[in-house]
Amino acid sequence: MNHFTTPGRQFLRAIFLTACVLLSVAPVFAESDPGTERAFAFTATLTIVLVAVLFFILVVPEEDRKGIAAAFVSMKRYVVPSVSDKAIEFDHDFDGITELDNRIPPWFTYLFAGTIVFGGIYLLDYHIFGSSKLSAGEYQDEVVAADVQRRFMIAKEEVVDENALVALKDPAILAQARQEFLKYCVSCHGNNGQGVVGPNLTDDYWIHGGGIKNVYATIKNGVPAKGMISWQLVFSPKQIQEIASYVLSLRGTNPLNAKKPEGQIYTETDSTSIARGAAGSDSTGVQQKKMQGI
C-alpha cells in the first residue's frame, strides 16, 4: 500500500536532492585536511536533518505526515523488538525468581552482522588483494617521503665545504644547536655533555678526534660499533656543523657527575677551533697524546 501522496514524495525528493548536492562537493573537501573533512561531514548531516524537519513541518500536509510516521514505525520494528514479543520462560525457579530467554534486540543482531561484513571487507582489502597498505607499508612510505623532504631541505641550504669547516660561535646558532642536542643527544651524552652511555664531551679527551672536522665527521657518519647512528639522514650538513660547534663549546664547562676522560687528549693550533691553544709545530697543527693512567 502506498502511504505517500504528491507532497510526501516531494518531501523525500527534497531530502534526496539535498544529499546529492552535498555529496557532489565532497571531493573538493577530500583533498583538504582531515579536520575540514570531518567538519564538512558534520555540517552536511546537520543540513539534511534541518531540511527534512522544516519540509516536514511547513510543506507536508497532515495526511502525509501520518503516512511518513507509519513508515518510520515499520522501520522501527526491524530495530526494536515489539512489546508483544514474549520471552521464553525456562523451567527454572529459585525462590520465586524465574529465568527468561529474552529475544536478542534486532539492532544488536544487525550490528554483529555488520562487524562480520566489515571484517570480510577488511580481510580482502588489506590481506588478500593488498589494495590498501598495512601500518608497516604506510610507515615505509612516510620514511621515503621524509627522505625526499630532507633532500629538498639540504638542496635549499648553503653548501658546507667539509675541508674548510670552522667552529661557529654565534650565540643564536649555538642556542638553536643546543635545542637539537637536548632533543637527540641527551640519552647518551647527558643534558650538559657530561656523558652517560657515551663519552664526556666537556674535557680535552676524544675517542674519535677533537676539533670541528673530527666532531663533524663523527656526527655525520656515526659510530655504529658503539650504537651511535649516522645523523646525516636526520640533519642537514649545516645543522651538523652547528651541533658540532655546540659540542666544542662545552669544553671546560665542568658539569656535575662528569664521566672520566676517555680516548686521547686533543689539542689544536688552528685559530678557528674552540679546542685548546698551541700544541706543537707539526704540519697538521695537531698534537695527540695518549691518556696516562686511564
Structural summary, described in words:
- The protein is mostly helical and 294 residues long.
- The chain has three domains: 6-77; 88-127, no CATH class; 162-290, Cytochrome Bc1 Complex, Chain D, domain 2 (Orthogonal Bundle), CATH 1.10.760.
- 52% of the residues lie in helices and 8% in strands.
- The protein has helices at residues 6-24, 26-30, 34-58, 62-77, 106-128, 135-156, 171-184, 186-189, 211-221, 237-249, and strands at 88-94, 97-101, 205-206, 264-268, 286-290.
- The strands form two sheets. Strands 3-4-5 form a three-stranded antiparallel sheet, with no helix packed on it. Strands 1-2 form a two-stranded antiparallel ribbon.
- Strand 1 (88-94) and strand 2 (97-101) form a beta hairpin.
- Helix 1 runs antiparallel to helix 3 and helix 9 crosses helix 10 (237-249).
- The longest helix is centred in the N-terminal third of the chain and has 25 residues, at 34-58.
- The radius of gyration is 36 Å and the shape is elongated.
- Residues 271-294 have low confidence and may be disordered.
Question: Which stretches are poorly predicted, pLDDT < 50 over at least 5 residues?
Answer: 271-294
- The 3D shape can be described as elongated
Q: What topology, given as strand order, has the largest sheet?
A: 3-4-5
CATH class of the largest domain: Mainly Alpha
Secondary structure tally: strands: 5
- Termini Cα gap: 99 Å
* Count of runs of 4 or more consecutive helical residues: 10
Question: What share of the residues does DSSP label as strand, in percent?
Answer: 5-15%
SSE sequence, one letter per element: HHHHEEHHHHEHHEE
Q: What is the correct CATH architecture of the largest domain?
A: Orthogonal Bundle
Helix content: 40-55%
The CATH superfamily of the largest domain turns out to be Cytochrome c-like domain
Estimate nothing, just give the exact number of structural domains.
Answer: 3
Rg for CA atoms: 36 Å
